Amino acid sequence: MIFRCAPSEKAALVAKARATGLPNATLMREALGLTAARRRKPVPRVDPKLTLAIARVGSNLNQLSRWINGAVKSGRASQIDALKVATQLVVIERQLAQIVVEHTGGGE
Q: Can you state the percent helix, strand and coil of the chain, rounding each to 5?
């Protein structure tokens, strides 16, 4: 559907759609009474650096989990060095703490 409107009217419609967290089409259908849109909480914007840092830590956890699971499946669970596992978990905990500091304003 195409309709004419002033640039200021279009800007107002787009702003309203963003504020409500709805696509433009849903907002228009709702205005016409064709649908009752479910109100969703807007998805928060996340710093891409934070996403990357968390992914790196998750990768470390994944590697540690694979190593432990492999040892258990192959019957070498008794050979797992608990000190090595604990050391790696402390490293991961410190990485997460550093990420929190950097992304909560404590690292500035």
A: 70, 0, 30
